[in-house]
Each structure stands twice: as structure tokens, then as C-alpha cells.
Amino acid sequence: SQQGEEDPQALSIQEGENATMNCSYKTSINNLQWYRQNSGRGLVHLILIRSNEREKHSGRLRVTLDTSKKSSSLLITASRAADTASYFCATVKGGFKTIFGAGTRLFVKA
Amino acid sequence: NAGVTQTPKFQVLKTGQSMTLQCAQDMNHNSMYWYRQDPGMGLRLIYYSASEGTTDKGEVPNGYNVSRLNKREFSLRLESAAPSQTSVYFCASSELDRDDYGYTFGSGTRLTVV
Fold first, then answer.
1. pLDDT band at B97, cuts 50/70/90?
2. What is the pLDDT of residue B88?
3. Residues in B touching A95 (Cβ below 8 Å)
4. Looking at CA atoms only, how far is residue A79 from chain B in angstroms?
């Protein structure tokens, strides 16, 4: 069964707006990671949040984690056309069992 | 540039043919992985190698074999390709036993089996 599931599946916004993507999961985790994938490319690691952390920032990215609700959100502030990509959450339970969700496709219109 | 290199980038096979996907990383990572990505689905783990000399099955290992040739290289072999193996394949690497460390991915191999 899939661990991480992103919502929405697709998101279209104007440049300058904020983009919020959500990830839900089913079992306990050690950490949760977010990745970006540009069309035709591999995934790029964006940010990692540990299970004992609630919020983390990296540049225009803000990630929150609510372990009681088993959910995380990724906020991209002041979106740019270059942010157009698919975004994946990955849940890490331990060992080598990292499970990726199906992704949110973000389109930022210039 | 440091990173994960996959070859080939594209491949078309006929049903029943065999091929090997190559992957090499130059970051001195201990762990390497093979994933497949299909439309509407997340990445699914095929095989992984926690360290040089070891390999283990992931979520979808059937129809595949792997070889950890040395610390840098991890290959994926399809012995008898089937249309269900049409997919995009990604190799990745990470630090051993560092589940607080992200993965570095290659740019992928697009495989079509006809």
C-alpha cells in the first residue's frame, strides 16, 4: 500500500502566488522528505523534516509536519515560472523503506 | 559534475530481449537503489544495495536482477523484457544508514518494451 499520498494531484497558479501541497501517510515515520522533478529529469531533494520537528524552512520553502494527523504540507512562497514541476513526498520509516507518493503537478503561469 | 549517471537514456526492446541498465555515482555513497516510475504512481523500489557486496529486493523485484559491481556501480538487468516493464527507471544513491539524508537521483532511463 502506498504510504505517502499528495493532494492535490495538480495545481495551477499565477506567478507570485503561494503554492501549497499536502501529503498524508498511514504509519509512523522517522522523517518525511520533499522532492521536485522537472519534466524528463530525475528527482531533486528539497527538504527533510524529522518526526520530532513541526516546521522547517529553506529559502522560499516551508514544510510542516503533523504526526498526530499523519500529514505534511509544502508551501512555496512567491512562486516563479521556474517552480513548475512535480513535487513528491517521501516517507522514511527506517532501514531502506522509503516510499514515494504519486506527486502533485504544479504549473506556475507567468 | 558530482552525481548519479545512468545509461542509456532511452531504449526500445522487443518482448523477450534482455538488457542491462547501468548506474554509477561519484559521491562515495554506500547505498544505491533502483526505482521505476509509472504514470500516476509514485516511485516503486525494485532493488537496493545497502553497501558494496549486498543487494536486497524492494517492492517490485520480479523480472529484474541487480549487480553491485563495486562501490560506484549498480546495474539492473532485465533478462526477458515484457511490455509491463515499460517504464522510466531511476537509479539513486544515499549515505549508508542515514535515513536523515536525502537521495541523489540520476536523470532516468526511458524504456519501452514492444
1. low
2. 97
3. 99
4. 23
